Here is the input.
Amino acid sequence: MKTFLKEHANWITTPVLFAGMLAAWHFYVVAFSVSAMILPSPFEVFNALIKILSEARTLGHVWITFYETVMGFLVALVVGVILGAMLGKIQWLERTLNPFIVALQVMPKVALVPLFIVWFGFGPTSKIIMSAVLAFFPIMSNTILGIKSVDRGHRELMVSLNASPWRTLIELELPSALPYLLTGAEIGIVLSIIGAIVGEYLGGSQGLGHMAVATMNAFDVQAMFAVIFLLTFMGFLLYFIVVSARQFITPWHAAVQNKP
Amino acid sequence: MSHPAIELKHISQTFKRDEQSVVALDNVSLSIQEKEFIVLLGASGCGKTTLLKIMAGIIEPSAGEVTIQNQALWLNQQRNNQALDQLGVVFQDANLFPWLSIEENVALPLKLKGIAKAERLDRARELCQLVGIAGFEKRWPNELSGGMRQRASIARALSCNPKILLMDEPFGALDAMTRDQMNLEVQRIWLQTQCTVVLVTHAITEAVFLADRVFLLSPRPGKIDTVIDVGLERPRDLYVQSTPDFQSAVLNLRQRLDHIAQR
Here is the structure.
């Protein structure tokens, strides 16, 4: 019983903390009679949430943002893993491309959104690309790290079996890099949400990012908070899916097995 | 007269380290007959592991020729598949892939050869039986003890029916009792599979217990110092260690090693 409590205490403590934060927020708004234009109370936000959820077009916005995020993430995953595998295996290629990759990373990519809109239009494509560009880097660099971290003894085994570079990649390097790759994917999914939303903020008329801007412009602060809540919830869900994938993809890894 | 299982001619190996070249092996020649059990013995850093890796085709020697079952191991700086197919290698670490079950690990060399799944897993189960880990085929490597992991790696080395088994300090990381047990097992497997074994160790008693012939290596640069025939009856049990023949062989090697160390 005691260990059960210890293991599952977070199922109580986390909601209690959450309730406490909501209470503090509510108390602050009421006690200092903060205007709803500055900070609405949690109840007002909840009511706004119910209201926007009852509107059919809200679900359309949710779907658009979800679609852009997932597509951007998948593009980043495919490109990041392929490029990461190539750069991890071929040293001269990594050395050649490294300055470009670093330059691309230090560049404030959000500034590219207007350009992407000019190139790819106001539709979802420009947001998917923004999302992919943001998510791609952590996935690629973690894949490179994973492939470089392959155990030396494992490599010698493959050499002694005369495995071709391709078979070594498939049988050894990629499985061995999976835990790293998943870490990259965990960071990547968060960034791909940000990419999609920033894209929507700055251009177009669809998605939750656009909805947040539109509600703000209409001085409907409660609704804007509700939109942010929806965004947070979606991000939470996507992140949770990616994190949970670890248990199914690398059940053999210590990060899965050594759960405290 | 059949050809030797392994033949090394004038093998030299130099490594470049910090702009300096270190001679690891200097003009080593040796010949190993089929079905022989050979132990390469020496202090750490004498080049015995390098020599084994050269036999295994993991390192290409700076000079000299390696012949496996009458076939050159290297042809135009490429590994010769026909020669490599004769070899099974057991490393110091079991080197099992943690994402594969024991049977999949054992079957890995067969998978690389393109053998169908059902067939290779059948073979893997047979081999698990042979090395004494039947019942653990579906487990993950990290669920097994060190000794059992090393058994699995021996099974993997045997999966392609090699004529020659090369073992690089396979039991160095095991405790003394498990080690004794594994030595008995290696002898049994060797007698059962009728292959040629080359085993690297720095333990004198292990060398004498296992070997038909012990090749004693001296360091800097690595070369073969002495070859000792061990004429003890097969199969040997652990009590052979108390016989005068065993003890005199151990003493002989010990004195030789001391002599090398003082040089």
